[in-house]
Amino acid sequence: MNQKQIILIITLLFCISLILGCNTQNSSNILQNTATNQTNENTIQSQNTKELNDKLPSVCHNENCFTVELAKTSAEQAKGLMYRTKMAENAGMLFIFNDIDIHPFWMKNTFIPLDMVWIDENHKIADIFENANPCGKDNCLPIIPIKKAKYVLEINTGLSEKYNFKVGDQLIFENIE
Fold it and tell me: What is the pTM (predicted TM-score) of this model?
């Protein structure tokens, strides 16, 4: 090899290393930008989920909140959680009655065990019935509270004990009219 060929090879190698170095730099920047964009998208999704959850009706006991479906009409109240096979742990159904009275419940065609929490007009727990078992037959026994209530909260069984619900505890209603 002569001197011109060696210089040409060295120049080519230098140019190739520059090109590869730039591509590596660009690839690194692209990866970094993609990761940053993904993080930003996740942050936006988290913020949107939080904003959405902040607008959903919920009932809170201390720091534990349940996103609730509202049962306001007679038809909604009659159906309740019938035929459901599962419910998220932080979910429930809030029955809103027009009057303050003894509101009995039953578990006909309800497939998941529930805790029932009767709540007075001041949003204080009036009574609790834990572990209401499913009943698929017509002769289901009513569950009758000992005190009058304006609302009844149904949540998954065991949660009233897990979160230490007690008669007289204050609940916070959010986005419930």
Answer: 0.70
Please name every residue paired with 151 in a beta bridge, in sequence order, or none if there are none.
96, 119
pLDDT, one tens digit for every residue, the chain (177 residues): 655 555 545 555 444 544 445 444 444 443 344 444 444 444 333 344 445 556 899 999 999 999 999 999 999 999 999 999 999 999 999 999 999 999 999 999 999 999 999 999 999 999 999 999 998 777 889 999 999 999 999 999 999 999 999 999 999 999 997
Q: Return the CATH fold of 58-174.
A: Jelly Rolls (2.60.120)
How do the domains of the chain map onto residue ranges? Answer: 1-55, 58-174
Nearest of 111, 110, 78, 83 to residue 95 by alpha carbon: 78
Distance CA 147, CA 172 (A): 20
